[in-house]
Amino acid sequence: MSNPIQLHDLHFRPMIGESDLAQRVQALGAAISADYAGKRPLLLGVLNGAFIFAADLARACSIDCEVSFIKLSSYKGTQSSGEISEKIGLEIPVAQRHVILIEDIIDSGNTMAHFLPTLRHLQPASIAIATLLFKPEALMHPIQIDYLGFEIPNRFVVGYGLDYNGLGRNLPAIYQLDE
To answer: CATH for 14-177, among 3.30.365.10, 3.30.565.10, 3.90.1150.10, 3.40.50.2020?
Structure first.
């Protein structure tokens, strides 16, 4: 696996390697393809963090699907601010569509708890959640995850789309804060 890295003032050590990520994303794509065969789901990525996972997951799906993005944010530095801001809204009609929300990470669940009522109001045929990472110890809202990449401890992570103050998104693996 990779060597430790430094981003800004913090040091990170490897947590999940590139090949493990690739294998898990392929498995999730196969599961989505089986579950949504003939339904043409809308894969709705949550920016910025989920852009790499969403792209790889879309390529791992063998069925027809559309891809779009919304931008919701709650992080400042290494902590969730607890307040969700919507930077870019939903631009595609979702009524009677099968929507799969794609998240990079679910920790407190604040982002999904904030956005799901808005999405439900638009009357999609169904809503599923796919997340690359999940921190069950940090969860503060009941969130049903339909497609889960990895359960991880409640540690700050970067890489594969996740960042620390703008850096680290381009790393091909997941790194955890070296505490």
So the answer is: 3.40.50.2020
